[in-house]
Design a protein that fits this description.
- By secondary structure, the chain is an alpha/beta fold.
- Helices cover 38% and strands 13% of the residues.
- It has a seven-stranded mixed beta sheet with strand order 1-7-6-5-4-2-3, sandwiched between helices. A five-stranded mixed beta sheet has the order 8-9-12-11-10.
- The longest helix has 20 residues.
- The radius of gyration is 22 Å and the shape is globular.
């Protein structure tokens, strides 16, 4: 795909490029294995001496064509699909971290990511320091240690909707000789490209806006190719020293800018196996084709909904980066001038009880453990996605007890507002 194409065209045309007589639509390679004529050919694949497919747990053509499309949308050099967004974040960090290492983590990341880093990976010997993304650079710098290997944050935090100052975090990470990993799920590459602002690795839960129809669970990791792993061989031995499980291959020497994704694919996917099913990748590709159209409508509807809620007498507060009153309004305009996302958080003057009552009265919007769907949906994070956190952790994550997360869909905006109006009218 030529670089001059815009994102709308990339979403439709990139990835699968059929040759004469081949299917116009991306095929589903629904096969665990791939045939070769000689044992030597197969052996060269296992030695990473040739590119190709031999077992879908590692790679599959359907997946790779979709990953290539997302890679181009983000402006990266290589990408891989995973079975979920959680797997993407896990692989992104674990690809460069091992027991005894340390990660700097934004406090406002999604609750599942927070648990992954602070609980599960802690059991693996990887420590984590949680930081307030709004702190100044001097304060944030104190979180780094000699064994820090990366920084992980979100473009737009779920559900706190904190907009990250990407340039600030990139400067900090690079001054400490480590990469910045950004989860770009909420903004999507349509509204923000973190690589432009200095990020090194981008992850996505493709389950959200990229799929857009609540049909498939999946994730993606994209490498910018900009971080010079070889400049810090002591920090990143997994990439810069021989891998004995592949006959002594050194990834940075053999694969250059593709070293990071090649290691994640050939080592982590080989051993841990969180591959995305080809059927899911096919459905994800269908979703990607309309991603720009849907993001435009999501953002339009969310802006109108946020303005409506801000003016409502029963609403105590509204958090949406598109509102001029929002503390992240200017950052959002800088990093996402065409819109942020379709997610709003707000609270009612009646508190937690009123929030539950209002949610139960909604008819169009559904209470589901999901976000970024074509259909409007709603959730109470303190009771649902973040219920494993204590009050102090909820506060650090920007999740108030009365916070309602409203994911505004692509329905008619009049119908969305009417549904909110009738539900609010019945809440105390």
């Amino acid at each position: 795909m030529k670089k001059q194409y815009e994102k709308e065209t990339i979403c439709v045309q990139s990835g699968w490029q059929p040759k004469n007589g081949e299917p116009r639509v991306l095929p589903i390679y629904q096969s665990t294995t791939f045939k070769y004529e000689t044992s030597e050919q197969m052996g060269r694949l296992f030695d990473l001496e040739e590119a190709g497919y031999f077992y879908t747990r590692l790679q599959n053509p359907t997946n790779d064509y979709v990953a290539a499309k997302i890679c181009e949308l983000e402006g990266g050099v290589a990408a891989m699909l995973t079975s979920s967004g959680q797997a993407a974040n896990y692989y992104a960090v674990f690809n460069i971290c091992e027991a005894g290492d340390h990660v700097v983590l934004s406090s406002t990341v999604y609750g599942g990511t927070f648990n992954l880093l602070t609980c599960t990976m802690k059991k693996m010997g990887i420590e984590c320091t949680v930081v307030d993304p709004d702190d100044d650079e001097e304060t944030l710098s104190r979180a780094f240690q000699r064994n820090t290997k990366c920084v992980l944050a979100e473009t737009i935090a779920n559900p706190a909707l904190v907009v990250l100052d990407i340039e600030k975090f990139a400067r900090l990470a690079h001054s400490h000789q480590v990469p910045l990993i950004i989860d770009n799920t909420f903004a999507t590459p349509i509204n923000c490209n973190p690589f432009v602002w200095g990020a090194d690795i981008v992850t996505h839960s493709t389950t959200k806006y990229m799929d857009g129809h609540a049909m498939t669970v999946g994730g993606c990791i994209v490498d910018s190719g900009n971080f010079d792993w070889a400049a810090y061989p002591e920090k990143f031995p997994g990439l810069c020293t021989p891998d004995e499980s592949y006959h002594g291959i050194t990834y940075t020497e053999k694969f250059g800018k593709a070293a990071y994704i090649t290691k994640a694919t050939s080592q982590l996917m080989r051993d841990l196996g969180s591959i995305q099913a080809p059927q899911n990748a096919f459905l994800l590709n269908v979703g990607l084709e309309t991603l720009p159209l849907r993001m435009e409508r999501h953002c339009y509807n969310a802006q109108k909904t946020a303005e409506y809620l801000e003016a409502h007498e029963k609403v105590a507060w509204v958090n949406y980066p598109g509102l001029r009153s929002n503390k992240y309004y200017e950052l959002a305009r800088k990093y996402m001038p065409n819109g942020s996302c379709g997610v709003i958080s707000f609270g009612l003057k009646g508190g937690r009880k009123a929030a539950a009552e209002m949610m139960d009265k909604l008819k169009l919007a559904a209470i589901v453990t999901h976000v970024a769907d074509a259909r409007t949906c709603v959730l109470h994070p303190a009771s649902h996605t973040h219920r494993q956190m204590n009050d102090e952790q909820l506060k650090e994550a920007g999740v108030a007890p009365d916070l309602i997360r409203l994911s505004v869909g692509i329905e008619n905006i009049g119908d969305i507002l009417a549904d909110l109006e009738q539900a609010l009218a019945q809440a105390d």
